[in-house]
Amino acid sequence: MGQVRWLRIVVIPISLALLVFPFFPAGRSASLKSEGSLSLVSEYHGVIPNMNSPTRVEKPSADNPGGIYERVPDKYLARYQRWKQEFLSTETGRQQWVSYQNNPNFTLTVVVTRTNAEGGTTGNYEWNEEGKLIAATITLGCRLDEGVPNPIYFPVMNSLLPTETTRNIGGETMAATKMAHEFGHVNRTAQGDSVLYQLQIQLMPEYNRIFLSNGRDVRDPRLIELEKRMGATPVEIWEDREYWGETNAMLYLRDRFAEDSLRCLLFSRIKRSIELYAPGYEERFLTVAQSLPSDRRCGW
Question: pTM for this structure?
Answer without folding.
Answer: 0.82
